[in-house]
Amino acid sequence: MFKKIYPKRTKVTDLKSGGAFFLAGELMQKSFRRSVKSLESVFSFIADFFRTHNVNDDVAFTVKFAVEELFTNLVKYNPSSQSEISLNLEIEGRNIVVRITDTESQPFDPTKSPEPDLQAPLEKRRAGGLGIFLVKRMIDRIEYHHTDKMSTITLVHSLEK
């Protein structure tokens, strides 16, 4: 697994939520309580990053949609876990790189999830799968890695959309 080392790492406390996040060069990292109620804080964190880096609205919408879908799935399909979900946002060249890490998870590779049958009548479609399908269509690259109960989903998306 790729790990980038930063020479300077500054801990910052978010006065609204009381949570801490780290600034390191072009990286911002924060952990969130495993709850759909955390989405407001997730969106605020992402918005701060986008403002800092002048990310355009189209890219911002796409990345927020993907993070919301994946974060919600991590909460929904692993409700018994008490671990937080970590979110890293980083600028690498002309891309935004988002890493979502769940430290107590069973393997589920969203890159290999089956595509929904969009041609079937609504009443005959199986529930689920549409959100991940849309994320895979909207985001430039998605990677998945699972080791020792830790899942990391990496999203890479061009800033030039």
Report on this structure.
There is one protein chain. With 161 residues, the chain is an alpha+beta fold. It has one domain: Heat Shock Protein 90, CATH 3.30.565.10. The protein is 27% helix and 29% strand. The chain contains 3 helices and 7 strands. The protein has helices at 39-52, 57-76, 130-138, and strands spanning 10-13, 20-24, 27-32, 85-92, 95-102, 141-147, 150-158. The chain has a 7-stranded antiparallel β-sheet with strand order 1-2-3-4-5-7-6, with helices on one face. α1 runs antiparallel to α2 (57-76). The two termini are 28 Å apart. The model is unreliable at 1-18 and 20-24 (pLDDT under 50).
Q: What is the CA–CA distance across the termini?
A: 28 Å
The SSE string, one letter per element, is EEEHHEEHEE
CATH hierarchy class name: Alpha Beta
Number of strands: 7
Shape by Cα distribution: globular
In CATH, the architecture is: 2-Layer Sandwich
Number of helices: 3
Question: What's the CATH superfamily, by name?
Answer: Histidine kinase-like ATPase, C-terminal domain
Portion in beta strands: 25-35%
Q: What spatial order of strands do you see in the largest sheet? A: 1-2-3-4-5-7-6
Percent in helix: 25-40%
Which structural class best describes the helix and strand composition? alpha+beta
Task: State the CATH topology.
Answer: Heat Shock Protein 90
Radius of gyration: 16 Å
Biggest sheet descriptor = 7 strands, antiparallel
Return residue spans where pLDDT drops below 50 for at least 5 consecutive residues.
1-18, 20-24
Q: What number of structural domains do the residues give?
A: 1
Average residue pLDDT: 82
